[in-house]
Amino acid sequence: MHILLVNPRGFCAGVNRAVQILELAVARYSDKTIFAYHEIVHNSYVVNHFATQGVRFVFSLNDVPNHSVIMFSAHGVSPQIFDEAVKKSLKVIDATCPLVSRVHQAVKNYVEKGYHLIYIGHAGHDEVVGTVGEAPQKITVISSEQEARNLKYQRTPNNLSYKDLQLACLMQTTLSITQTQQIVNILREQFPNIEIPERNICYATKNRQEAVQILAKKSDMALVIGSANSSNSRRLCEIAEQQGIVSRLIDGVDEIDPHWFSGKETLLITAGASAPEYVVQSCLAHLCSMFEVSVEEIVVCEENVVFPLPNDWI
Question: What pTM, to 2 d.p., does this model score?
Answer without folding.
Answer: 0.93
